[in-house]
Write a structure and sequence with these properties.
Blueprint (H helix, E strand, L loop, with lengths): L2 H9 L7 H16 L3 E8 L4 E9 L7 E3 L3 H9 L3 E4 L7 E2 L2 E2 L8 E8 L4 E9 L7 H78 L7 H25 L7 E4 H10 L2 H6 L2 E6 L6 E4 L1 H18 L4 E10 L2 E7 L28 H11 L3 E7 L3 E9 L2 H4 L5
Parallel strand pairs: 10-12
Antiparallel strand pairs: 1-2, 1-8, 2-3, 4-7, 5-6, 7-8, 9-11, 12-13, 13-15, 14-15
Helix pairs in contact: 2-4, 4-5, 6-8, 8-9
Length: 407
């Protein structure tokens, strides 16, 4: 007796289904084999110190979905790391040894067994019966083996998820390396062309401006010269963007107040926001946020995102800018109500020369991405097509704010 149960559970190790589905089968088989009305499997969540229900089988009454680390019989098992068996003479009772547990209501026999190895607790098996039962030594041994098998399942799942994350990161790194090689070649070509074009373009712009000043506005030639000046100015902006993207300027890192840099960036766009009926909402952190940054370069990165946001809200809207600290990172969120980007295009927004705007150079966001990366930061995008888009820049806090630990 019991070997059939253990054999079925061992077979589940090769079962190509989720951990939760395998646990439901284990809960059902264990309740049947040991003669209990209900079996619940809880997993221990180390991040928020809670026992969370992973699977249940049998009687559904008095099922608790979550226990805190000091709540219920699970807390006793966590402290003592051994199986607890109690008899509840009055099924209306929810107290045992001054421990309140609403999960025992309606049951006379309760057994809670730890799912653990030599060093860590991974959860508990919670068995309940409406009648008074007593686990024989053989059944206790079966329960212990079931708990060890569940521990094996959980550890394998943790290792699988860790390997999957590592594999995903390696694939991302491989893709980035491939893109980096393309960008290097493109950057060298772009920089060479930009330098070759810039000098004659400056001459053309200067001569056209001088000619414009000499002509009367009533002159029939004035409109042509004015158009030349405007187009040359536009070309100069494009050339400057290309040079800014391709040149690796030395950054001057100093300890900076993040809110001050963000505030300065916003001020440059207050007039254009008013003219375009764009409401600016600022929600800055209540505590100072200090980052190691090149303030000028970081402002350029913010400017590019704000410009995109303003241009996406031609008919007015709301520009929301939020700063806050989370763990070891400083965050800047820039959110607009400009309708977002078509989902199939979102993966291209950091590619050089990609743009969805007529007359755009497609270099603003690549420049921003480059600046943030050189600050050892990250930039995340949350796109809600039809509503708007949110850019979140994450930058490392200074050592004094992060406790000297950086990830």
């Amino acid at each position: 007796m019991g070997y059939e149960l253990l054999g079925k559970i061992i077979e589940l190790s090769a079962y190509n289904r989720s951990l939760e589905e395998r646990f439901r089968k284990v809960a059902r088989l264990t309740a049947q084999e040991l003669g209990f009305d209900s079996c619940i499997i809880y997993g221990w969540n180390r991040e928020d110190n809670t026992f969370t229900k992973l699977a249940t089988s049998g009687a559904r009454k008095s099922v608790i979905n979550m226990y805190g680390h000091k709540e219920g019989l699970c807390s006793w098992v966590k402290r003592n790391r051994k199986t607890l068996q109690i008899h509840n003479p009055d099924p209306r009772n929810i107290l045992w040894n001054q421990i309140e547990d609403r999960g025992i209501k309606g049951f006379k026999t309760i057994v809670v067994s730890p799912i653990k190895d030599e060093s860590h607790l991974y959860g508990v098996i919670y068995l309940k019966a409406g009648d008074r039962l007593s686990l024989a030594e053989r059944k206790k041994n079966i329960l212990n083996v079931v708990a060890r098998l569940l521990c094996f399942f959980i550890k394998c799942d943790i290792d699988y998820k860790r390997l999957k994350r590592t594999y995903t990161k390696l694939k991302e790194m491989q893709a980035r390396l491939g893109n980096a090689e393309k960008l290097m070649a493109l950057g060298e070509l772009s920089a060479t062309l930009a330098h070759e074009i810039k000098n004659p373009l400056v001459s053309i712009g200067g001569l056209a401006t001088r000619l414009q000043k000499k002509l009367s506005k009533d002159s029939p030639e004035y409109i042509y010269v004015e158009h030349i000046v405007k187009e040359v100015t536009k070309l100069e902006d494009i050339i400057n963007d290309i040079l800014h993207f391709t040149e690796d300027r030395t950054l001057k890192f100093t300890a900076e107040k993040l809110d001050s840099i963000v505030e300065e960036a916003i001020k440059g766009f207050e007039d254009i926001c008013r003219r375009n009926s764009i409401k600016v909402e600022k929600l800055f952190s209540q505590e100072p946020i200090s980052v190691i940054a090149d303030a000028g370069q970081l402002k350029i990165a913010l400017d590019n995102i704000i410009i995109n946001a303003i241009q996406s809200m031609e008919g007015g809207g709301t520009l929301s800018i939020t700063t806050y600290r989370r763990r070891r990172w400083a965050h800047v969120e820039i959110k607009d109500t400009g309708g977002g980007i078509e989902p199939h295009l979102i993966g291209n927004i950091f590619n050089p020369f990609f743009t969805t705007r007529k007359g755009g150079t497609g270099l603003g966001l690549p420049i921003t991405h480059k600046i943030v990366t050189r600050h050892k930061g990250h930039i995340d995008v949350a796109n809600e097509y039809g509503k708007g888009i949110t850019f979140t820049i994450r930058l490392p806090l200074t050592d004094s704010q992060s406790g000297g630990e950086m990830k």
